[in-house]
Amino acid sequence: MDGKEKLLSLGAYPDVSLKWARERRDEYRRQLASGVDAGVRRKVEKASEADSFEAIAGEWFEKFSTSWAPTHSSKVIRRL
Fold first, then answer.
1. If you ran DSSP here, which 8-state letter would residue 17 be given?
2. Cα–Cα distance between 52 and 17 in angstroms, integer?
3. Which of 4, 22, 47, 50 is the most exposed place for a label (fewest CB within 10 A)?
4. What is residue 31's predicted lDDT score, i.e. its pLDDT?
5. What is the pLDDT of residue 75?
6. Using the 8-state DSSP alphabet, how is residue 65 labeled?
7. Are 38 and 28 in contact (CB under 8 A)?
């Protein structure tokens, strides 16, 4: 892509079958031929998972930490 070699991990061998990995490779090659970078696409999809615990906990912390003492605030964020 853009004159650079890019690698894309499909998973560890015992967990991912060779047949499945070959199918995914072929799919990613088709996407690459049509101009879609599979690595960038995966990053965007992963970032769009805004309902993760980390995202929700971060929003909660930002909302309530303004009224807490700094020591309490630092303890809470470490525990999260």
1. -
2. 28
3. 4
4. 82
5. 92
6. G
7. yes
The ranges assigned to domains in the chain are 18-47, 50-80
What the block records as the tokens of 43 is 């990053």
Q: How far apart are CA 29 and CA 26, in angstroms?
A: 5
> In 10 A of CB 61, how many CB atoms?
15
Crossing angle (nearest 10°) for helices 70-79 and 53-64: 170
Structure tokens of 69?
Answer: 């003492």
pLDDT tens digits in sequence order for the chain, 80 residues long: 667 777 778 888 888 899 999 998 898 888 888 777 777 777 777 766 667 788 788 889 989 988 999 899 889 988 98
Contact present, 52 and 59 (Cβ < 8 Å): no
The torsion angle over the Cα atoms of residues 46, 52, 53 and 59, rounded to 10 degrees, is 100
